[in-house]
Amino acid sequence: MPTRFEVKREMGAWLEEVRLWDSFSTWTFEHPVTVAGAMHQAREHVHLLENRVNGWDFPPPSQRNGWGYVQDPQLMLPRKCVEAFVGVEEGGVGGLVHVHALVGGVESLKADCGNHAVSLNDQVKQFWKGHEPFTCCMKHAWPRGIARVFDYDPTKGAAYYVGKYITKRLAEWELVGFPAHPQTTLDTHGVRVYNGVRVGERK
After folding, report:
1. 67 near 75, Cβ under 8 Å?
2. What are the pLDDT digits (tens) for 1-56?
3. Tally of CA atoms within 13 A in the half-sphere of 60 that contains its CB
4. 73 pLDDT exceeds 70?
5. Predicted structure pTM score
6. SS3 readout for the chain
7. d(CA 65, CA 119)
8. What is d(CA 197, CA 141) in angstroms, rounded to the nearest whole number?
9. What is the pLDDT of residue 190?
10. Cα distance between residue 136 and residue 127, in whole Å
């Protein structure tokens, strides 16, 4: 039977091959939330990032379908997909829940604008007043608490770090934005193609 370390190592290696990641994020919550609730909010945030990438507005979710928004004149334009690995766990002190995420398809968005004048209170007020979350960067776009967002660097081992979720008892993980039955193929040059992304080669 493989050890926990071996399982995490294999999970990390698999995540490195799933797709080319653009950012590594940690999302926290200002108020207590369950693991299931955190996962739901993480999914919604990935959808918001996809809307940003595609230049869509910020209507309520009921107005959104798989291609855009029902009132959008550009409804039939192919969308650019944002895909993520999301892991949610309870912290060791006080059991506070937080999220780690690898996100791909957001190369056009800035990870951190560096503006320290934007406070957590500003972000939360913006969201609860029904306004669009801040658009300056992905760090300030997270409206639920404090976020740390970095450009993904495969040499720093983030995929292997989040691989721990497969062995933790109080944790859940999920692939968000991927098709229900993703297919791995080889293109004509023998390069692995996963969900339209050529692994090992940035578009």
Report:
1. yes
2. 777 777 788 888 888 888 999 999 999 998 888 888 999 999 999 998 998 888 76
3. 3
4. no
5. 0.72
6. CCCHHHHHHHHHHHHHHHCCCCEEEEECCCCCCCHHHHHHHHHHHHHHHHHHHHCCCCCCHHHECCCCECCCCCCCCCCCCCEEEEEEEECCCCCCEEEEEEEECCCCCCCCCCCCCCCHHHHHHHHHCCCCCCCCCHHHHCCCCCEEEEECCHHHCHHHHHHHHHCCCCEEEEEECCCCCCCEEECCCCCEEECCEECCCCC
7. 32
8. 26
9. 43
10. 14
Give the Cβ contact number of residue 109 at 10 Å: 19
Alpha-carbon torsion, ordered 159, 92, 89, 116, to 10 deg:
-70
Lay out the sheet containing 97-104: strands in order across.
147-151, 23-27, 97-104, 83-90, 171-176
- Specify the amino acid at residue 77: L
Most confident of 58-67, 134-143, 159-168, 180-189: 134-143
- Unique residue bearing structure tokens 């293109």: 187
130 in Cβ contact with 60 (< 8 Å): no
What is d(CA 10, CA 159) in angstroms, rounded to the nearest whole number? 10
Sign of CA dihedral 166, 168, 172, 176: negative
Residue 173 phi, psi dihedral angles, 5° rounding: -140, 160
Residue with tokens 């913006």: 126
